[in-house]
Amino acid sequence: MADQNIEAEIRRILQEELSGNASSSAAGTTTSQPDGLGNRIFTNVNDAIAAAKQAQAIYQDKPLAFRKKVVQAIKDGFGPYIEYMAKQTREETGMGTAEAKIAKLKNALYNTPGVELLDPEVETGDGGMVMYEYTPFGVIGAVGPSTNPCETVLNNSIMMMSAGNALFFGAHPGAKNITRWAVEKLNEFVYKATGLKNLLVSLDTPSIESVQEMMQHPDVAMLAVTGGPAVVHQALTSGKKAVGAGAGNPPAMVDATADIDLAAHNLFTSAKFDNEILCTSEKEIIAEDSIKDELLQKIVAKGACLVTDPKDIKHLADMTIGDNGAPDRKYVGKDATVILDAAGISYTGDPKLIMMDVDKDNPLVKTEMLMPILPIVGCPDFDAVLATAIEVEGGNHHTASIHSNNILHINKAAHRMNTSIFVANGPTFAATGVGDNGYYSGAAALTIATPTGEGTTTTKTFTRRRRFNCPQGFSLRSWEV
Predict the structure, then answer these.
(1) Considering only Cβ atoms within 10 Å of each terminal Cβ, which end of the chain, N or C, has fewer?
(2) What's the domain range around 51?
(3) Does residue 58 lie in a domain region?
(4) What is the pLDDT of residues 331-389, one digit of tens each?
């Protein structure tokens, strides 16, 4: 394909990603002026980045205690608004569930690692002292998805500001209203606590042009993109340091030694979480034939609808997968009942998942279905399970999981899958920091940077590692040099 055709195709996909589910309702009064609290929503990229750069120039000279004060202001300020953000996000985007979003927001707000990760590294010896410290990049250009709008604002802001950076945040038009609210509130909380404005800036009208302009802006030192493959591609070809979250199609492997009751519970709970819009969610089950039917029955008993008619299965695939091979945005993150009703498939009760027993080549298996559709594939033995999982994961190296009581199977699968996230005998959302009770002891991870290799990002991801040498001393073990 000619270069101009490649560019045109990227532009088409990017425009679709940025325009999907867009709402025309206003989020508030548009302004490029401060309102006294430091809430800054700008009309153009240059003004926004100039304001962030000015703020960061002040911020980078502040002690770490000041950064901790910023983070604490964010946590204290947003705490009372978690349910509001969850409900507004669900209402604006039409995706996921408010309950799941509450868990994700708590995770992003309270479990995101901060300044505590920036302890220096020091080495001393006969050659003196070498010290490594983690310092800010400057202004980071971030792009967020409609699937996790407020969560990404919170997670990115805490990590990047802990590292000493300011942010330009490119909102997804499909979640522009709640994103704008979050940006304004964050500025309000930080300003009231510290008197500093514009550590986080955004635009009143997000667009493909503004994202491209931001990515090429000379005062943006680094990019962090959480979104579809086209947006990530733009970041990776910008010439800047970029952290990109790429595509995934996480398989869940189940071998004959697994605790089937526990596996069924974990798979059902995790796959239905927020209607499968998490990139880490189990998108297909690959199970040994000897336990596949039992596993399937137990998941269905928990609240899944099993579709058995081949015509219905094909119709579901045709209806939910677009001509471009991607999931149809009309059904992304929608309730299982909405999809079943649209497909004309009858069901009983209120199913949370749609399941079908298919072969590995079915498009519902090979496509990253960001909706509550969970196919299951049978294999004769564990080696076939692993080989199939590697195949359907598609070389994205994003996320995979296994349910097994055979330590050798777990070890081999973790090694061979070579994914940024690997979970054994648990729900994959645990790897993002979310747990059944809304909190988890691990660090929140919303940007899974597989293409660029950082994996689950932390505060350190958004710093420069700098080296300081002092050959004349600073070793307490000896004196002569």
Answers:
(1) N
(2) 3-246+454-466
(3) yes
(4) 999 999 999 999 999 999 999 999 999 999 999 999 999 999 999 999 999 999 999 99
